[in-house]
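step=encode ok
step=design start
structure_in=
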């Protein structure tokens, strides 16, 4: 699968220098899960202002249409890959389960990836059982290596090994810090939002997952415009990988030297471009946690 690699790299160059010169003190990635079954709910999230990361369920009625629209509106698109859960809840089409053989498992995941246009990575839908299975997570990460995609662990189980397996396979990886809307009351949404902002300010970044509920949409539409005044920058997940990777290049590094993996931009010998960021947040090489 070809993913407009050079276009992404050139965009990363511009975005990275903007980030390095006009950086906020903290960055926030907001992932909206479960998009694709309901057009109105999904479209409302697509039309929110700002570079949200939208996670689409595979083989759903409105996934392609909404993903194409989201791409035009500068949203980041990832696959929300259904994975087996301990409660045996229904997963829908494209489900990855422990009953599949290796060939069936990888074919199912590749078909799910192919069903969503413009994707840059994946996260897990449910998965409280499957993400604890080391063999299954190895198969996931081997497939993502082939497809040149990143992985975000939704952490639906505290015993998940998915993030560790992503790092072991040298994939760009993140893991969720906060779920916004397990409780959709205004008080609970505010509490979870404030937790995410505190994490972002403390560590430099936070990963928040929300869902296309009406309450969540209304809350985010009010809160997103306030992020800049809180000194927090809303960014797509891939920008975290790309901006830290770009620090590993010399200023005269030719684009022809970029390897095939779009996120694998670091050079072991290179000096970070921005020493202030490097000293305050550390030099983040591919395969190391960005949190």
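sequence_out=
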């Amino acid at each position: 699968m070809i993913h407009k690699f050079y276009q992404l790299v050139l965009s990363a160059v511009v975005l990275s220098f903007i980030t390095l010169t006009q950086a906020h003190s903290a960055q926030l990635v907001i992932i909206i899960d479960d998009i694709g079954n309901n057009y109105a709910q999904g479209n409302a999230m697509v039309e929110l202002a700002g570079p949200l990361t939208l996670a689409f369920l595979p083989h759903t009625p409105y996934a392609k249409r909404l993903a194409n629209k989201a791409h035009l509106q500068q949203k980041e698109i990832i696959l929300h890959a259904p994975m087996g859960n301990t409660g045996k809840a229904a997963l829908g089409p494209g489900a990855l389960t422990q009953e599949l053989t290796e060939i069936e498992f990888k074919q199912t995941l590749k078909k799910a990836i192919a069903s969503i246009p413009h994707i840059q990575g994946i996260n897990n839908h449910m998965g409280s059982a499957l993400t604890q299975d080391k063999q299954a997570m190895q198969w996931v990460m081997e497939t993502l290596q082939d497809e040149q995609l990143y992985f975000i662990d939704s952490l639906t189980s505290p015993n998940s090994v998915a993030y560790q397996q992503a790092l072991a396979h040298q994939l760009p990886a993140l893991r969720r810090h906060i779920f916004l809307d397990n409780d959709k009351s205004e008080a609970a949404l505010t509490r979870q939002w404030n937790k995410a902002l505190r994490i972002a300010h403390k560590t430099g970044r936070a990963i928040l997952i929300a869902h296309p509920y009406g309450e969540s949409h209304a809350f985010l539409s009010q809160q997103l415009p306030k992020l800049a005044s809180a000194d927090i920058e809303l960014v797509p997940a891939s920008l975290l990988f790309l901006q830290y990777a770009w620090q590993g290049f010399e200023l005269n590094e030719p684009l022809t030297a970029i390897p095939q993996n779009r996120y694998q931009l670091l050079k072991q010998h290179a000096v970070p471009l921005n020493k202030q960021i490097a000293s305050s947040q550390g030099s983040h090489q591919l395969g190391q946690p960005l949190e």
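step=design ok
step=annotate ok -> Residues 186-203 form the longest helix (18 residues).
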